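Collaborator request log, item 7. Partner lab (contact: R.S.) asked for a structural prediction of Protein fem-1 homolog B to inform their binding assays.
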Amino acid sequence: MEEKLLEEISSSLKERVFFAARDGMSLTLYALLYEKNNEEIDDLLNNDVCCDGVKCTPLIAAARHGREGAVRILLEKFRPPVRLETEGTVKFDEYVIEGATALWCAAGAGHLGIVKRLVRAGANVNHATKTLSTPLRAACFDGRLDIVKYLVRHGADIHKANKYNNTCLMIASYKGHLDVVQFLLESGARVDERALCGATALHFAAECGHAAVVCALIDHGAKILTNENGMTPLQCAAERARASVVEFLAARPEVTRAQAVEAYELLGASFANDKEYYCIRMAYQYLHRAMAMRYDTRYGLLLKKPAPPIPAYDNWKESTTLEDVERLQGNAHALHMEGLTVRERILGRSCPDLPHPVVFRGAVFADEARFDRCLALWRHALQLRQENSVFVVKDLLRFAQVFSQMIHIGIELPLDQVCFVLEACAEELKRGVERLKKPPPNHDPEGLTEEYESNVRTGLYLVSVAARLLESSIKSEVAQNIRRAVFHLRGARLRSGQTLLHLAVDRRTPVDDFHTSDVCQSVTCVMILY
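Returned to partner:
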């Protein structure tokens, strides 16, 4: 009993010390520690305290929250035994950072005074987190040139990359911190270093629309290279509707006329269907400009070779002449389909960015209750992603929701689409099991498990939809196809061991609240799983 009481007192004191440091109560912090011996202080200051998803020492907490007075007390009065290189788990916005030191936290949170104190006390300026992020990278992310300069002057390695081989120059370029980019370049940063995805700093700046950073990188000799998907910075900018960057790069002497034409076509196509930068006027303007360049007789004709029509895009035939493009003006639907067709021709089916606007255009159709067009586009996007082994957890849930919405408002479901999605779900669950057995590089096993279990629950929603169809009068052949598709889902189970049948009869099973709750009440659902 006495032992337990002593443990509780010790735990309470640890928490009081931790919160005093975190909240900047320097005098309280000192008062709690000054009469303790070194062994007690070591226990209080060098062991983690868990609070709100954070697990770290008092020094790390004080550094993270900018409590310079508390940091000074700890460094000047209690070092040793306080340790500078102890790692903790902290939160920065929506990110959880594992393996962060006090210096990393101070640099990432922009506390220059604390950075200086820690470095003067002997903190390792290159001590990286679990993902190999250094204090310098944290400062580059936040755009703190003063901290970046101080760390570099005190030995920070500007070439040290994280686990994805993403460098400080890349993150500064991605965030658009021009002054940091210029300093790193002047300090000898390798301008054409590649991340594991094959992208350079120029790719990151271009796709985010940071024209001034793009210009600075080019001025320091950056080359226009391709990433692992075969895309140049010019194409990345066009795909993201970054007009100013496209204008700058397309005019570069190393860019051919054909490359410039395709960049303007891709830019116009992206404006036609981009969720964030949608602009039908700009879509027409750049598609027209690209076609005019193709027929500029001063430089010779560049005739277009259109791809075969795609059913999901209304079998749209891509424009091949200036007159064709001019007929699109004022016709939003035509420009939407032209844009999707152009994007697929230029980017190719294997490009991971291709499906996003397809999904967006489908969502617009769903909002207009044009479900046939919505389902055709979403099916195409799902096929593209599964062809390229991209996770489709959101795609499957999206189908379950729209099917449930259609049932809710009394619209007949297309049976072939339901069967297709059931089969796609079964395939994704099969792939999920394989991923769990052999996790792909750079994928967290816990995250893979959560994705798999999300797909299992979505499978239940889809089975509930199928059950509703079986309750109606449908042909026996169609019913057999649905039952066959459901059969392939029956073996799926959560880590708890629950199968779809268990979930179907368990009241505690969470149900998505976007109309799926309306259909997840069917006895037939249990019957076809039994």
